[in-house]
Every structure is written in C-alpha cells, then in structure tokens.
Write a structure and sequence with these properties.
By secondary structure, the protein is mainly α. It has five helices and no strands. α2 runs parallel beside α5 (about 150-165). The longest helix has about 30 residues, at about 115-145. It is elongated, with a radius of gyration of 17 Å. The structure holds MU-OXO-diiron (FEO). The site of MU-OXO-diiron has 7 residues, from α1, α2 and α3.
Length: about 170
Amino acid sequence: MLSKKVEKALNAQILLEAESSHYYLSMASWAESEGYNGTAEFLYTHSDEERIHMIKLVRFINERGGKALIPSIKEPASKFKSLTEVFSIILKHEELVTSEINKVVDICLSEKDYTTHNFMQWYVAEQLEEEALAKTNVDKLKLMGGDKGALYLFDRDLSAAAKAKPNEKQ
Ligand code: FEO
C-alpha cells in the first residue's frame, strides 16, 4: 500500500510526464509545419514515449492500492524560433524532470517504500539517457551555427534515429 506522501509525489509525476508528452507534441507539429520532417518524426515518437511514462505511473499507483489522478494540461508553447531553441528547451525540461524524479526517490526512501523506490529506478535510468540525447542534439546544433546543409543532415539523422527507436518502453 502506498503512503499518502508517495501517492501524492507519484501523481505529481503523472502531471509532469503528461506535460512533457504535450510539449513534445506541440514541438513535433511546429517542426512538421516548418518542413523539418525528420525532427517532427523524432518528436512525435518522443511524445508517445512520454505518454507511456505517464501510463506506467497511472497503472503502478492503482496496482499498489492508490488512486491515480488524470490531470488537465495547460496549453504548451506552439511557436519556436529555431531547432536550437527547441532542443535547448527539451534539455532544460528534461533536467527539471530529472530533479523531480530525484525528489520522488528521496520521498520513497524517507517513507521506507522500497518497492516504489525500485520502480522509480527505471525513470532514473531513462532520464540519464534522455538528458544525454538532448545535450548531444544541442551541442550538434550549436556547432552547425545555422548552416542549412548541416541542418538538412541533422534533420535526416533524426528521422533515422526515430525509426531505430521503436516504442518498446511499456
Ligand atoms: Fe519522461 Fe522525458 O521524461
């Protein structure tokens, strides 16, 4: 059985994952409308993954005798200046998600809830991967400095990355 404190922390994490999914969906739509089709594909896939992160939490809370709350989500930004801005926002957002996940882990330890602590380790590992990927993309875009040929290749590579990473994370 979940303690009220752990249940509250996990429900807060549901909101954050839902917001992430929504945010990346908005970015995917922007990229598609700007002709960055590879980036759009990558971001649509990323948005789907965030939804899976959210659903994992919903089901875990309910299975452990708590009550998962499905929150409303505020409208995300829909206009971006450049791909560099998009990926810089993603990096900052993922850093925020990591710090919130670390707080949930802290609460699990203080509540001596080792089952939820164990469950959260999947998120800890996932964040490591997501932050590293976002940072790589920001670094690449900074190096390109807006060069159109390089941006074309970056966009094409992201399309390949999206195809190579099916939504396996159930
Ligand atoms: Fe599920 Fe990117 O945090």
